[in-house]
Amino acid sequence: MQWWLDAKFGLFIHWGLYSLLAGEYKGRKTNNIAEWIMHDFQIPPQEYAQIAEQFDPQQFDAEAIVRLAKKAGMGYIVITSKHHEGFAMYDSAASDYTIVKSTPFRRDPIRELAQACQREGIRLGFYYSQAQDWYDENGYEQDADNEAKNFRKYLDEKCKPQLREL
What we know:
The protein is an alpha/beta fold. It contains 8 helices and 5 strands. A 3-stranded parallel sheet has the order 1-4-5, covered by helices on one side. It has a two-stranded antiparallel sheet with strand order 2-3.
C-alpha cells in the first residue's frame, strides 16, 4: 500500500522570501495570496532579491516542527523548496539564489527538516515550482510574454539539477 493512503493527515509549510513580506511591499498590500506578491506588484528580480538580505529565521527549529507534527498524529510534512519567486530554501549547486548563499541565515532548513523527519519516521515531500520562476530570466511567468525565453535552458540548467538535489 502507498504510504500516502495511510498518512491522511499532514503539515504543509509554505515558506519563502514572500513570508517576510507578509503580503505587503513598500506600503502596498496585496489582495492576492502573499506568495504572489513579486508577480502581482511586478517587483523586478534584482530588487526582490534584496529581501534575502533580511531573511534570517533564527528561531527555525526542524526538530520542534517534526515533534509537533508527530505529536499531532501527522504522517507527513510537505515544505516549499522553491516557489515561483525562484528562491531555493536549501543549498543548491545549480543556483546562488538560495537561503544558504543569499541570506544571513546561511543554514539549510530543508536538510535539517529531512534529517529530523527521518529520525522521527515522518515522510517528507517537497513543493517545487518547476515552470514558473520569476527570478530566472528563462523561467516562465503567468500573464507575461514568455516568447523570448529559453525554457529548455532553464529546465536543463536549473530545474532538473535542483530536482535531482532534492
